[in-house]
Amino acid sequence: MANLNIKSKQENTYGAIVIGSGMSGGFAAKELCDKGVKTLVLERGRSVIHNKDYPTTNMMPWEFEHRGQMPEDIQRENPVVSRCYAFREDAAHFFVKDQEHPYIQEKPFDWIRGYQTGGKSLLWARQVQRWSDHDFEGPARDGFAVDWPIRYKDLAPWYSYVEKFVGVAGFHDGIPQLPDGEFLPGIELTAAEEYFKSVVEQKYPGRNVISGRCAHITGNAEYYAKQGRGICQHRTICQRGCPFGGYFSSNSASLPWAQRTGNLTLKNHAVVHSIIYDDAQQKATGVRVIDANTKEVTEYFAPIIFVNASALNTNLILLNSTSKRFPNGLGNDNGLMGKYVAFHNYRGGVSGEYDGLKEFTTEGKRPTSGYMPRFRNVDKQETKFLRGYAAGIHGSRSKDVNYSGTGADLVKNMMNPSYGPWRVGSHMMGETIPKESNYVALDTDQKDEWGMPQLKVNVDYDQNDLDMIQDYRDQLSEMFDEAGFKNIRTWDDERRPGLDIHEMGGVRMGHDPKTSLLNKHHQLHTCPNVYVTDGACMTSTSTQNPSLTYMVFAARAVDHALKNQG
Amino acid sequence: MNRRLALKQLAMAAGGLALIPSCDFSEEKVLAAYDELQITESQQQLLQKLVDTIIPKTDLKGATELGVHNFVLVMANDCMSAEEQKQFLGGLKGFDDYTKKTSGTRFTKMDNVEAEKTVNAILEDKPTSDDEMATKYFLQTTKKYTIQGYLNSEYVMTELMPFQLVPGPEFNGKKEIVPGEKVNING
Ligand SMILES: Cc1cc2nc3c(=O)[nH]c(=O)nc-3n(C[C@H](O)[C@H](O)[C@H](O)COP(=O)(O)OP(=O)(O)OC[C@H]3O[C@@H](n4cnc5c(N)ncnc54)[C@H](O)[C@@H]3O)c2cc1C
């Protein structure tokens, strides 16, 4: 018996374990495997193999029974995920349905999830703006959360490293709060956006409109061919999975790369229940895994553990990892784990029309749009609210189709469309302030099907967010007005937190073990062989999309873990 | 999910059924394919005539030829709320009686010209009673789905307004419009 155990322990021992195969876990796995470490990736969802498991990728619009729309009964049964714009007939199979994995909304929170190989990296909108010192110095300057233990200079080389692998289309714009990166050819703005840019940059010094940097391959084909990926074909149906590998996903890029090293073991249907802490050795020794189908429990062992289950699930796993030494969750001596959760504020929008530039339209499709980097409180505090917002900016030429009449008249009307005005629009991406009162915790009674406690979510907007929404609406409509746009409409759609899909925090980084959970290398202060490099580690949220930065953290932390392995 | 699969298979069968002239309407079975709607074959045929009135065959293919009437029923069955379905069905089931009452002829008995005139009149009218409201809602919704099904059909999207699944890497944000050039809504 004893021998058997030793044998199974040997068979289940790896050089490193990565929990989660999504955006951040996939990159951690790639780095570990590249450096020769036998790596086990544990993924709770099913296997999704690049190009084999993209059932809708080549479907024509007319082949969808409801032309994309989700049937009424599915929407009724799934109010949360149905609010996500990408939960449509072509990609619904990559989203978690509400009933499948319940959680407790002590306050309304739309938790949008993808449980499968690749996680949400299959579904994302691929916007990859770097963060800057304006973001990393924010908490210290403005006196909230805690000081980040890192600065932009710590990350800059890693941003370059990750961007080169991922493939990022963009222009060198020279904007201090949005550092330039390693860019493939950028994707041009439309005539209306170009025009808006010229108005803004002339009338509002310090404000810019650029083409959003996106994780799409637009050049250097030979280099990416080595990854098995090709140039982006601008299909703009990326959420189905891209047969060309034109956009970055774990499935098309990092995981196959890791696989080719021969060092990767990827186990699907492996629900990580908790991390095992050994009191005698005073370190984490492995993880406890429940088979999603059979519910059988298996233990796996490794000297290095990366937790990349996506922000809130990482909180859940760590809080659930209790031991004599850590009765309140692994590394949670200060009781702050699960607290200071924050997110992005996407509630505000503006739209309008432009009657000029009548001689132009656009041709083809593009996988990005215009982007206005944060311009509020950049160098100093200027408004009554803290921090600021970035804005998506898009302008496209409308096509007027006349649907009036019936019979032969209708056919004639419909088949002779004309060009209408340019339609211009914007959405905000605001920074929210992490607060102790925005937290997640484990429910002590209700468990899920696999015996994990359900997560309770307590996250809400505050007055700072509402003031920011108002300012965004005022500023954007003023700029639209300056540009001569007509029929300007602004709104606050009052969406719930979570729908931004940029939930962050709960296991924040910091200098001091009393006020933070992770050190500057993403190690738990009190259990340093456990690393957290997904959204859970974020001390503050910035206004830029976060996923590029998660991958940068993963690459940098793997480097640290291997250099400091004793 | 099984219901949907059954529905898909039956929808195809029902499309075939419509071609078989049915003589006895007294004991009509409801069409299993549209289980939420509980409609009969003759109601389906009425809808087919309506869809063909909205988009008839011209020098282009008509809506029925493209199976758009089935699409309308699939959407009504799957994508409408219970309240919307109630109105839609009320309008559909009472449509023949309604047209008989207002213009003296049942819709199913009308020739094409009269049918189109009747439909246009209802679409333009301001409804005053519940009956009229349901009828107008039914027509508007049918027109909406007919147009959607037609414009998104393989025929339109390959032959009339071509759609490209793989447009290629070129994007021109400032293309000069050539006057007179046909505008493609899927281009
Ligand atoms: C529609 C949409 C648009 C988006 N747009 C953007 C964008 O433009 N830019 C941007 O930066 N971000 C965007 N995002 C967010 C982005 O997808 C996420 O930030 C990113 O995927 C997070 O990476 P992750 O590795 O932390 O989590 P995920 O990619 O979600 O991966 C986590 C993985 O862990 C697995 N897992 C969870 N719990 C367990 C467990 N207990 N045991 C084992 N495995 C577990 C999950 O199944 C999942 O596969 C978007 C997301 C969506 C859905």
Structural notes for this entry:
The complex is a heterodimer of chains A (566) and B (187). Helix content of chain A is 25%, strand content 21%. Chain A is α+β, with helices and mostly antiparallel strands. Chain A folds into two domains: 1-169 and 213-343 and 432-460 and 497-564, 3-Layer(bba) Sandwich (FAD/NAD(P)-binding domain); 174-212 and 344-431 and 461-496, no CATH class. In chain A, strands 4, 11, 12, 14, 15, 16 and 19 form a seven-stranded antiparallel sheet that branches. Chain A has a six-stranded mixed sheet with strand order 5-2-1-9-22-21, with helices on one face. Chain B has 187 residues and is mainly α. Chain B has one domain (29-164). Helix content of chain B is 56%, strand content 3%. Chain B has helices at residues 2-17, 41-54, 68-79, 82-93, 95-103, 112-124, 130-151, 154-160, and one strand at residues 172-176. The longest helix of chain B has 22 residues, at 130-151. Residues 1-26 of chain B have low confidence and may be disordered. At the A-B interface, helix 8, strand 13 and helix 12 of A face helix 3, helix 6, helix 7, helix 8 and strand 1 of B. Flavin-adenine dinucleotide binds next to helix 2, strand 6, helix 11 and helix 14 of chain A.
